[in-house]
Design brief:
Layout: H1 9-12, H2 14-22, H3 36-44, E1 46-47, E2 53-54, H4 62-72, E3 77-81, H5 88-100, E4 106-108, H6 115-118, E5 120-122, H7 124-130, E6 137-139, H8 141-148, E7 151-155, H9 162-165, H10 168-174, E8 176-179, E9 184-187, E10 193-198, H11 210-213, E11 216-220, H12 227-244, H13 253-269, H14 288-305, H15 312-323, H16 329-340, H17 349-358
Parallel strand pairs: 3-10, 3-11, 4-7, 7-10
Antiparallel strand pairs: 1-2, 5-6, 8-9
Helix pairs in contact: 3-4, 3-5, 12-13, 12-14, 14-15, 15-17
Protein name: AAA family ATPase
Pfam families: AAA_5 (PF07728)
InterPro entries: ATPase_dyneun-rel_AAA, CbbQ/NirQ/NorQ/GpvN, P-loop_NTPase
Length: about 350
């Protein structure tokens, strides 16, 4: 068992990538480790030429992944857009792993991200001792990706200030990064491109300028269409995460996932599944990712404090943590849902009792 908590995709799925590469006879764009067709196979699942089973990394419309891969084979950057929990970061990581074999060149965008973290920084000891030079320059993931012809990932691009976002315009337009302090520039090697992710529900969003938007091809990743599809995604990811954390997965995981998903989908949509009762929605998104976190938290609690039994009682606190982001508004929304819907629903008695006790 590895001591590393989480391996990058290219290491955790190294056997699958090697099997695909060994039988890959398709045309590859410059710098790509796999042909575009097999990149899609790696993301969507299938079989390698030698019969190796390729597990699906994304459950959804194959055409969206084909569009994303085709975009990265051109000189246009890719923007994965969607609400929280639509697997944007997951898809971004696996695309980078399959295309260049390195998903670690990543810039996590925040309100505090500045130009030095996007373009390049300086080793100030070297700078003071010898003045500006290439030895004193500290390359960012973006600069390293340009020099090596790989993909650079920008996570939550719209969290970064608009003026910092626009530092990417020259890189995307000219495929070069000027270094005015050295009267020099870094020119992108073939194979370089950018994958960015952004969500449209974040209250801290800084809209992309029209100039920057034009340089991205946007692929919108939707929430799962059906409850069955969402349940399948959650069961798969919960199983993977439980194994990585050495948590035994209880036998009733799928049943409890179905119940949690039913609660989340109704609160998220603002109506019951049959459409007969209108509901107030909480302030949070109640995404698929949050449902996964609820289940993993519940399994952990069941393992250590409930003799391994996954019950509504072990999940209730995690459900409240996901739903109640605003302690006043969301608590009232959940309370109303419990009394008008869950109290009368067969099979959810344990959730009604446990959630009512905690709120």
């Amino acid at each position: 068992m590895s001591e590393i908590l989480r391996q990058p995709a290219e290491k955790s799925h190294a056997a699958e990538l090697a099997a695909l590469a060994a039988g890959d006879t398709g045309p590859r764009p410059p710098g790509w480790a796999l042909s575009p067709r097999l990149v899609v196979t790696y993301l969507m699942g299938g079989k390698a030429a030698d019969g190796t089973a390729i597990t699906p990394k994304y459950v959804g419309d194959k055409r969206l992944i084909e569009t994303a891969v085709a975009t990265l084979a051109t000189d246009r950057a890719l923007l994965l857009l969607g609400v929280p929990g639509t697997a944007k970061s997951w898809v971004s990581e696996h695309l980078a792993a399959a295309i260049t074999g390195d998903s670690t060149m990543i810039v996590q965008c925040t309100a505090g991200t500045d130009e030095n973290q996007v373009r390049y920084g300086w080793n100030y000891a070297q700078l003071l001792a010898h003045g500006p030079s290439r030895d004193a320059l500290v390359p960012t993931p973006l600069m390293r990706a340009m020099e090596t012809g790989k993909l650079c990932r920008f996570e939550e691009l719209t969290r970064m200030g608009s003026d910092v976002q626009d530092t990417l315009i020259t890189v995307l337009s000219e495929k070069m990064m000027p270094i005015p302090e050295l009267n020099d520039a870094v020119y992108a090697a073939r194979g370089f491109n950018i994958i960015a992710t952004a969500n449209n529900r974040d209250k801290g969003v800084n809209e992309l300028s029209s100039a920057l938007k034009r340089r991205f091809n946007v692929v919108v990743l939707p929430l799962p269409d059906s409850a069955d599809e969402e349940i399948a995604i959650i069961v798969k990811r919960v199983g993977e995460m439980a194994r990585s954390l050495d948590l035994p997965a209880p036998k009733n995981v799928a049943e409890e996932v179905a119940r949690v998903v039913a609660i989340f989908r109704e609160l998220r949509s603002g109506s019951t599944e049959d459409g007969k009762v209108a509901l107030k929605s909480p302030s949070g998104g109640l995404s698929t990712a949050e449902a996964i976190a609820v289940m993993v938290g519940g399994i952990s609690q069941a393992t250590f404090f409930n003799n391994g039994a996954l019950t509504p009682e072990t999940l209730a606190a995690n459900v409240i943590g996901a739903v109640v982001k605003d302690p006043v508004q969301d608590r009232a929304v959940l309370g109303e849902y419990l009394e008008t819907v869950l109290k009368k629903r067969r099979g959810f008695e344990g959730y009604y009792a446990s959630l009512t006790d905690l709120i």
